[in-house]
Amino acid sequence: MGAIQPKVGEPISDEMALVQAAKAGDVEAFEELIRRYDRNVFRIAQHITQNREDAEDVVQDAFFKAYSNLAQFQGQSKFYTWLVRIAVNEALMKLRRRRPERTVSLDEEVKTEDDSVPREVADWSPNPEQQYNQAELREILDKTIHGLPATFRTVFVLRDVEGLSTEETAEALELSIPAVKSRLLRARLQLRERLNKYFQRREKSNGSQQKPSSGDVNQ
Amino acid sequence: MKCSEFLHELTDYLDGVIDSPTKAELEEHLAWCHNCYVVCDTTKKTIEIYRDSQLYELPENLRTRLRSAIVQKCQSRKKAGPEGTTQ
User: Fold this and answer.
1) pLDDT at B38 over 60
2) DSSP character string of A12-35
3) Which of A25, A58, A125, A190 is most buried as measured by Cβ atoms within 10 A of its Cβ?
4) B21: distance to nearest CA of chain A, Å?
5) Measured in whole angstroms, how far is the alpha carbon of residue A176 from the centre of its chain?
6) Which residues of A touch B70 (CB under 8 A)?
7) Sorting pLDDT into bands at 50, 70 and 90, what band is A210?
8) A161/chain B closest Cα distance in angstroms
9) Closest chain B residue by Cα to residue A120
């Protein structure tokens, strides 16, 4: 079984030149940086806030904050990683405002003792996404990822959807590398478990689902 | 190798950042443990489905509107003077 193939990112060779020009006050250069990353920032923001209006605000606030603080960007990390860090913080602030009863912090320990241990072990159809039309599939994926704690959702989105490396994710979220890895594993396994009910292969003969032979996985 | 040890290494295995001896051990485990094979395979599919899903695409008209609003704010800040551009 092969490893996951990462998405190919945008070329970054000329990026520092754009950042330098923007630092010197060239708004058009900054506009080019917005064009490169606005889709990513919107996706991340929507995943964290789970709200379209908040995500729109986050895109505006994050880019404006980045522009206003460009002098502080020293170029030790990629511009995108630095921008993601700003966007994640803005999105978390929105989430906290919306749900003041629950403090949301990325470095809180989330108790999921049993959540990540596979309970349902059933084969999926060869092309599970083709069982549903685009709209149905999006609804399933949206509903499923919404159920995850914010900290898992964020790590999963940065690593697996946006294609940041583990190191970049750790830097953007100000988490240690082991913390990123542990959250990523839990996020992936929990999502897999939750998607099981939609994608598992159904027996044609009697319509019943294939039963997992429990006990083997959790030794 | 136990299934719990396999699970512990699953993320690094799927990301292809694992040393050869450990990879060989994991694949030996996968060869006989059907449950771990299924968990590994369906976890990989989970990642691929989300990655390819185009969930939360930014519509082009909204994109243009947001970009104009940001650029306008940046220009106002620029006009505000040298203090405004350096924080």
Assistant:
1) yes
2) -TTHHHHHHHHHTT-HHHHHHHHH
3) A58
4) 16
5) 17
6) 34, 59-60, 63-64, 67
7) very low
8) 5
9) B39
CA nearest to B72 within chain A: A27
The predicted-structure confidence for A66-112, as pLDDT tens digits, reads as follows 999 999 998 888 999 999 999 999 999 998 888 765 555 666 555 55
Q: What residues of chain B lie within 8 A of the CB of A184, using their CB?
A: 11
| Distance from C-alpha of B20 to C-alpha of B24, rounded to nearest angstrom | 6
Question: Residue A198 to residues A29, A144, A211: CA-CA distances in angstroms?
Answer: 45, 10, 15
The rounded mean pLDDT for chain A is: 83
Name the residue among A46, A128, A219 with its Cβ closest to that of B49: A128
Beta-ladder partners of A209: A202
**The model's pTM:** 0.83
pLDDT higher than threshold 90 for residue A177: yes
Enumerate the H helices of chain A as residue ranges: 15-23, 27-49, 52-68, 79-98, 134-146, 150-156, 166-173, 177-199
